[in-house]
What we know:
By secondary structure, this protein is α/β, with parallel strands linked by helices. The chain has one domain (2-287). The chain is 43% helix and 14% strand. It has a seven-stranded mixed β-sheet with strand order 7-4-3-8-9-11-10, with helices on both faces. Strands 1-2 form a two-stranded antiparallel sheet. α1 packs across α3 (119-127) and α2 crosses α7. InterPro entries: CARME, SAM-dependent_MTases_sf.
Amino acid sequence: MECVQSSSAEAVDAEVFINFKNEADNCDDQNKIGGKEGDSERKEVNAAEQVINALFFYKKFAISKLRRQADAILALSEKDRKLLIVPSLEHFRQVRECVAENQKVFDMIVTCGAHMLGGTIQQAFEITQLRPATEHYMTKVKSVLKQIVRDWSSEGAAERASCYQKVKEEMVKQFPEPTSRHSVQILVTGAGLARLAWDLLSLGFSVTGNEFSIFMLLASNFILNTCQQCNEFTIYPWVLDFSNAWSWKDQLRPVRFPDVNPCIVSSDQRLNTFSMCAGDFLQAYAADENHFDSVISVFFLDTAANPLEYIRHIHRILKPGGTWQNFGPLTYHHEDLDEVRSLELPFDQIVRLIEHCGFRIDQLLTKDHLPLSRYTWNPDSMLQYSYHCGYFQCSKAEEDKTM
């Protein structure tokens, strides 16, 4: 997959430019049916179709969960059933209403993506026939709601500040003159729903966001291109979280989004550019070298099967003297996957490899210097996850070091 990057302010209006193309687009016969390129394209369409199906299946999935809850109550003795059946029925009715509202948002996300992104998404949209989705996909669907809370709601402000504020402050320190920031090219890896990328854009920088997840790409496209005012939409992120609840009403708590109007940063008012790039980080920028002034990775480094590949790749795509900021834990995503050869390195070894690969460490902060960070947390849940994150800022040496 490759990205289409905007080169002029007129070409973008806080829009996501995503082109789901075959990675082998330098082949003359890339679209020949039956060839490797055709197989690759079909795989991409099928992958997108599974995502779209899961988003459409959310309501049916939720009803099946409610049915299991109801069956468990009905299986109780008559005496115990009387204790629960009346309040449960009312709660289930409210849950169904909240689920229906969430489904409306998911429907808009998919429809917006099919109409605006075209290509693979449009093809997947056209062939989707609703069917049960796996638990794996439905977990990701529920995660979309929580990612919206994190990146685009007032409730997520504190969580965002704990993860994004440091890197934004450092960018402003490096480039204190706002009028010249448009010439600074920043890559945000693992951009998710693109809030950090948008925040940097609003500070005047030219920003490219890279994201692999189709779930995230569809949702960010909807927010950036459809939302026209603050708190325009309402979701119920925790409505299917039956465990670790203090009360039933906590499940029904609404969250409104977005907390800002993404369209405020419009192309006719700025010189800086903005784009989103779909695809695997290593493949999407395989042809780039000495391109970016800054790379920012937040909660991203642990997505690598081999962190050394990421380190070398970031070094290659940075301009000489360019900076890389990283913030996050090391919850390696491939650790428990037998089919992936995964390398899990501790923080100190990551730092050692960074220096070996031609970077100079400018800042290094650990748990003693940073506040706890959370990720898509529910403040009203009995279960709370938090991270002691590591942070570093490093610079690419003017002369490359052999790696």
